[in-house]
Amino acid sequence: MKSSSPARRALLPVAVTVAALAACTSTAPPTAGAEAAAPPPAVAAAAAAAAPQPVARVLAISIDGLNPDALTQLGRAGAPAIWHLVDQGVHTFEARTAVELTDTLPNHTTMVTGRAIARDRNGHGVTWNDDRTDPATVQAAAGEDVGSVFTEVSDAGRSSALFTTKEKLRLFDRSWPDGVDEVTVLGQDDALATAARDDLVAHHRAFTFVHLGGADVSGHLHGFMSPAYLDTVSRLDGLVGRLERAVRRQPQLAGTAIVLTADHGGRGESHRDPAQRVNYRVPFVVWGRRSAPGTSTTCRAGRTPTRAARRSATAPGLSPCATATSPT
Fold this sequence. Notes:
The chain has helices at 5-9, 13-24, 41-50, 68-78, 80-88, 104-113, 138-142, 149-155, 171-175, 189-202, 214-222, 227-249, 277-280, 307-311; strands at residues 57-63, 90-96, 160-164, 182-185, 207-212, 256-261, 281-287, 295-297. By secondary structure, it is of the alpha/beta class. α4 packs across α5 (80-88) and α10 runs parallel beside α12. 47% of the residues are buried.
């Protein structure tokens, strides 16, 4: 399935991420007039071994309902894996989810399409948040062809996989059946992370999307930012670590970039009010051999998210903060 030209003109999120990673380690040109001396063979070999790997694949992890304040409160001791990605990569805890709704399915659809939600704003039209099959596809909801990161990867002759704890995300497989090569739906985060890790090791996929749902479930049961919710986030951090270790230790996964984000935040019993900052504010972390360690982006006092930045939490080329009149 080929994506339409409007979708292609939109900067698809993971494509932008890979471009950003590649740009992070551009080398400075030699000083004018400097002579290029050939290094000794041993030095040249060591330099080649230490050179940044080109990005060959992307592992995107969405922790459903992850309020970035949970990471701050847990700290490096309570969430060591995510903080490792933060410390060694590029991050912001001030990213924005979609402006129209702060629900799981609409925002995950925005993640993979780069579109707004509202159909009348050239959005994808997915406004429901359950596993209904009518409309059956994103295209039916939008009333037109809609491309995604899955179709972009497929058009490039590469493979994608989707791992999710929620049946509702099967919408992606129905919408882009030629683009999603593997779909696994398991209700338990632990089992899902294991399945995703095994697939990463066994298959040379360009894009793997992993959705972990436990934090959202705990937030609805016990309250977002409650002790039980924080315990769940800490447990999910261990699963992120399981995936990250596979990427670091398996030679065939060299050149993998990891993108970690969320579909919405939340505090108390709900995340439904899209006007509340605590609901639309999410973390965005990019880690890879080409990222600049420890780089962060924050909003200065008095600044608010741009409409474009809030539209897609997976477009790092968009600034998350702006004044009322001009972007930063």
